[in-house]
Protein 1
Amino acid sequence: MKRACLTVMLGLSLACAEPVTITDADGNKVTVQDSSRVVTLGGPITEIVYALGVGNRVIAADTSSTFPAAAQALPKVGYQRSLSAEGIIALKPTLVIGTTEAGPPSTLAQLRAAGLNVLILPAEYTPEGTRAKISALGKVFGREAKAAEINMGIDRDLAKAANLAARFKVRPKVMFIYARGPQLVQISGTGTAANAMISLGGGVNAVRGVQGYKPLTPEAAVTAAPDVILMLSGGLESLGGVDGVLKLPGLAQTPAGRNRRVVALDDLYLLGFGPRLGRAVQDLTLRLHPELAR
């Protein structure tokens, strides 16, 4: 009985907390009055909510929400870029949080038309954008002090990574390859999370003149001549490991291919731009400059 009463009281306190107003990605003011039942769209958003210590309020998430482990057990509402409104509405959330990567726009419009409170934050692939997301969600959940602590940790780790990378005059040329089996292999140009991470990690994007992603071709591989091939762990596995990667047309003839320099990191860890950003940049810096670890 006591536990039931406490649960009810906690729910009421969350529902009746002081309203918080946040400016969303479109410049609109979104007022949050109840954060007791949250649906998170996007791995970085889910990870931030858990890092703030309020993961118990998340009732469902999208399929890219793979960290922390507790998030993997949540009911899933589909992939953030191809959502369906019906499943989310049926959960009766008091708040839906995502970034500009969430969509399609018609689904978000349906959620709002159904009376759901939807907060969409900018998906910026920068340390500043990451800190802004964390600060905004810290305000939403009344965890401003925790948000500041997380951001300070990110800054410390980024400073360490920058100091490491500064020790080398030559920045390796890095080609990021996104793969989901041999039938879907793309390379990353500018305007992507991968491009931003390569720069933060002390590398240079080997792919020039490309905005976003484009299919890998033998000509593109040879022209880019990467020193390092960077991939997501899942993508590397989908190709059968390093040997499978080097079977892709043109890659074996590159410096990275000849030296078998293929670096792979977890998907959300590498490209999430969430609470672990600083650690991920440090890790990537060491992978791109292996002499630092000696």
Protein 2
Amino acid sequence: MSKHSISHSGRRLLSRRNFLQDTSNGLGAIAITYLLNSQGSLSAQNKQVAIRPDIDPQKPLAARTPHFVPKAKKVLVIFCSGGFSHVDSWDYKPELIRRHNQPMPGASDLITFQGAQGNLIQSPYTFKPRGESGKYISDLVPNLAELADDMCFIHSMTALKNTHGPAENQMNTGFALDGFPSMGAWISYALGTENNNLPAFVCIPDPRGVPQSGPNNWSNGFLPAVFQGAPFNASKPIYNLAKPTGISRDDDLATHDFLQFMNDKHLEKFPDDTELSARVSSYELAAKMQLSVPDISDL
């Protein structure tokens, strides 16, 4: 079969990039597709372990058995919205050097937000092969360049939008539109957490200001709110964590005990009220965090 006998949509799928984009549409979509697949009919090692997590409404963040033995226990994502350009750091573009100060091909068909389309500019930094791999990295990041053989670089990714907000959404949720769960929310939903004293998903926004898409970067989207990220701050890790001035420890404990009594009575009357159970779990976690957060938030 010749390529020209395939429909336009079919030809798009011949490209690996377009295939992944059209069939999964990003990390968030990959996660939901994977979790909803067969509702537990598939498992890499144990046929009794469901891929779709079995979540206890009263303990929604309890650790859950993964469908295979994981290699990583923790994941740290450093997302630099508006950071330095990839073509100035570790994405060597010889063609950009050859086309320096020339108009960008197809520029007349582009729509710009501010002013006319400028010419192409080569990077002002010098690129050199680094490590045994010979990976080209610029002098802009000399310390990272020394670790070239220890890092994995992905150069095949593209964004659907060239504005910060929608592109941030796509990076962290898989979709350019608002309202979809972030990577951390999906991971918390799928695996829970083994730490009972801290949130399953923590985010540390830049103290100078949050990204343009704001809390969408760590949002729970359409998942229950318990799976959203807990924002930490360098100077004040968690807002409203400490007791108000004038409230003694005894008063605080008495209030806690009374609320627990009222919640228990409510659950006896309405045992299927999962929202209250989740809210109680959140407040119990907050009480534990009063002791744990000061020890771990000194960055």
Protein 3
Amino acid sequence: MPDKVITTLLSDLEKLFRYALAHCEYVCPERRDPETCIIMSILSKKFGIKLPCEEDYGEFKRETFEKLIKEIEIRRGKKIDEVIRELEKNGYKSLQDQIDHNDAIFAVEVLRAYDKRKLLSEEKEKE
């Protein structure tokens, strides 16, 4: 289904944002959706409200997750796909293993979500 533009009150959008923010505060990182996280980060800037994950990751932007992947690759001495495969195969031997695994998967998914948004945006421009 193609995206459509709607008009709504900014105050209504902010209420929805604050409602969704409860998910960030109480459910994340257990259940998170990278595409929704990107949307939340865009809206958080518009409303001047920091997301809880900014304490862990810093500003929610593509470069943040590219840097996170690089840090994990340097620490582990392997490409991110190898890190993920190895941790899934061998399991966790430390808390750092679990953190690296969760962060690696999320960072890769966030980058894919940014790529998808970029493609959709480019397709819209062509129309």
Protein 4
Amino acid sequence: MLVSSSGPTSLIGIIGNPLSHSLSPIMQNAAFAALNLDWLYLGLPVTDSSLKSLIKDLENIQCRGLNVTIPYKQSVAQLITELHPIARTTGAVNTLIRGPKMGWIGTNTDVEGFIAPLKMKSTNWKTKKAIVLGCGGSARAVVAALIELQFTSISVAGRKLVSLQGFVNNYKSFCPQLKYILWDRFSINSIEIEAFQQALKDADLIVNTTPIGMTKRQNTHNSLESPLTDLQLEMLKNEAVVYDLIYTPRPTLLLDKSVSKGHECIDGLEMLVHQGAASLKLWTGVKDVPINVMRDAALSYLRS
């Protein structure tokens, strides 16, 4: 809790490293102002060695809540004793809320954030097939969301066999439809290439959770990459939806090319805004949070 001339100011923060790219302070402080809350949202850089002590120190100073971003979503899940079921399922925490007495409760609003824009495209994703590019912390929330939406087939593609096997094993008891595919953009292994291409052809939804295509500044696509080649994009169903969790640049090269081929596309800004709104509801208890204000603030910053 901070003290200003008008009285105590409630502190919310985001922990991670690096934080220079984060739009969360922009969005959340705009929302606090719209709700007339004397709250402040700060970026709180942390290191591996200081993570545990920082979380405890923030608890002691009555910090109202926290967001957690890369690379600490899984580490924080192991530090918090009370986890919401969705955080246990994903093994990752992106939001901390105060417990009724002391301590933190960890949850994951990335799942809700990912689902919200998909439901705007369709209310029924049952019997659909998805391929998820990457198997990091973001992919954990994506897969949990796809399970909730009752996709009948979910393929997770990545470069490292051990990581893929561990990822799939995390869900095997309740998600038999989840499988892994070895995927290296530069692979010459014909078996790997064929399996990946078949998953692309079958997919109703393609989700990029990798950083391929990300940039810190908005500029041209000349120096940017796409996780999928032009030939691979040609393999997609006409009705396939392409979802890229990256929001800078906007659009990414992947989405730019997908739109040109007639695909419906979703970028990472919508997920970011919706997960932020879900966190805000938990911290404030306000059901009708100003999501449009949050989106507009983020867009304004990206355009500046």
